[in-house]
Amino acid sequence: MPAEWEPHDAVWLGWPHNAADWPGKIATIHFVYAEIVRRIIDSEKARILVNDEAHEAKARSVLSKAGSLSDMVEFYRVPSNRCWMRDTGPIFVKNESEIAVAGFKFNAWAKYDDHELDSQIAKKLARKLRKKFFPIKHNGNPFVLEGGAIDVNGKGTLLTTEECLLDQRTQVRNPGVSREETEKVLAESLGATNVLWLNKGIVGDDTHGHIDDICRFVDAKTVVLCRESNPKDANYPILEENRERLEGFRLENGRKIHVEFLPMPEPLVYRGQRLPASYANFLITNSSVLVPTFNDPNDRIALNKLAELFPKRKVIGIHAVDLVWGLGTLHCLSQQQPS
Predict the structure, then answer these.
(1) Which of 136, 238, 262 is nearest to 192 (CA)?
(2) Which of 83, 158, 170, 262 fits a 20 to 30 Å CA distance from 145?
(3) Residue whose C-alpha is closest to residue 88's, from 125, 57, 58
(4) Dihedral angle sign, alpha carbons of residues 233, 235, 241, 244
(5) What is the DSSP string of 88-113?
(6) What pLDDT is stored for residue 3 in this prediction?
(7) CA distance 328 to 212
């Protein structure tokens, strides 16, 4: 699996249609998506999933009004339950001669029942793109994995969390599958010969431990890790333990990982629920890094840190206070297709 900063042909998005994901906000969310599309098409195609002709017409109308519609935008009519393409879209892998799709099972984060359409998206898009689709199994059973659960450096090292992939009580992806068995599957399917396990994800994470809200590779030897400065915040001990683990990890070549830090925004709460607001949920495009912002003093610190780490890309803040009501932001809603 290539790293996200390697060249893309496109970024995949799903045009929002499930109003329950953003109570009272879906119209606002459409224009946030239009801004994301506008930034993507600066340097690559935006490939957008829609349910049908009418859904596509609505998306085209919004994009046109926002000045985000061009020949760089392509629509694919594949019905979905939701629009979180990081987890339902194709996970692309490549070798010297071709790009294919690693066919993991999607079970709606082991939490929701309505995923019969989402579970078919990757296979249908592989067929439309004329890419090989390899069903990933373990002991004859489909192996469950979401794209947001992993982050890779493109050299063989993969980051994930025990809470997400090894949990056998709360949101169970692969019942009875051990750490060693999971690592074997990740090596065979993604070329991940070196799996690094952090402990838990941040408070409010509906996915039960996705890595893309806490720690991300920014180059082959460097990660950014979210760090909470308030010792009384519930995320403080979680992120400190993850920091301690990272300091002892080694890359695939035996070298230590270089760790940089991103702040956490102040807590965002909706109907008594802590939302998973995190600057680590950024999206890397061919020309930019799109970063969720939260009307927070730490927005500027996070943008400046990522600008240091991506000197050849424009670092652009995308207002995500409304977006995070859906329990995810920029990385969660996108999936890159490598060149």
Answers:
(1) 136
(2) 262
(3) 125
(4) negative
(5) HS-EEEE-SS-EEEEE-B--GGGT-S
(6) 98
(7) 10
**Single-letter amino acid code for the residue at 297:** P
CB 245 within 8 A of CB 294: no
Residue 143 DSSP label = P
Contact 196, 216 (CB under 8 A): no
Tokens read off for 80 = 């979905």
Residue 23 has pLDDT above 90, yes or no: no
Q: Could you give the 3-state DSSP secondary structure of residue 54?
A: helix
Token match 């906000």: residue? 25
Token pair listed for 223: 């990660």
Q: Cβ contacts of residue 95 below 8 Å, gap of 6+?
A: none
**pLDDT tens-place string over residues 158-197:** 999 999 999 999 999 999 999 999 999 999 999 999 999 9
Rounded Cα distance, 239 and 198, in Å: 9
Tell me how far apart the alpha carbons of residues 304 and 107 are, in angstroms, rounded to a whole number: 37
* pLDDT tens-digit series, residues 313-329: 999 999 999 999 999 99
Which residues does 323 contact at the CB level (< 8 Å), separation at least 6? 22, 29, 32, 292, 329, 330, 333
Residues marked as catalytic? 332
Span 82-117, pLDDT tens digits: 999 999 999 999 999 999 999 999 999 999 999 999
**Could you tell me the fold of the domain covering 8-338?**
L-arginine/glycine Amidinotransferase; Chain A (3.75.10)
CB 220 within 8 A of CB 153: yes
- Residues near 295 by beta carbon (within 8 Å), at least 6 away in sequence: 319, 321
β-strands 334-338, 8-14 pairing? antiparallel
pLDDT for 81 equals 97
Beta bridge partners of 92: 101
The pTM assigned to this predicted structure is 0.97
What are the pLDDT digits (tens) for 254-299? 999 999 999 999 999 998 999 999 999 999 999 999 999 999 999 9
